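Before the break, one more example. Copy the sequence into your notebook; we will annotate it together after we see the structure.
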Amino acid sequence: MLSSQSQFTTETPEKYLVQMCKHFAHKVETTYSNTEGKVDFPCGKAEFFVDENNLIFKVSAENSENLNKSKSIIESHIIIFAFREKLERLEWN
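Here is what the structure looks like once it is written out:
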C-alpha cells in the first residue's frame, strides 16, 4: 500500500473537513466528525485530520496510479472549496 500526506493551513480547518466529507458522502462511503474523516474512493482511501490551524490529508492506494488519482480528487476539491483562501495546490510527501 502506498501513501502520501499533505496539509492545508487555515483558520477554519473543521469547516473544510466537514464540507468535503459531506460532498463526498453523496457518492462514496464516508464517515466524519468535526476533527477527522474517512473517505473510501474507488481508487483509494483518504483520511482527514484537524490539527490546530491545519487540515491534514492522508491518502493511500494499492498502486501509484490510484494514489495519484486520490491525491488529485482531494486537491481539486479543496482548491474549489477554499477559493477565498487562494489555495493553488497542495504539497504532497
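The longest strand covers residues 2-9. The chain has a mean pLDDT of 97. Try to locate both features in your own notes.
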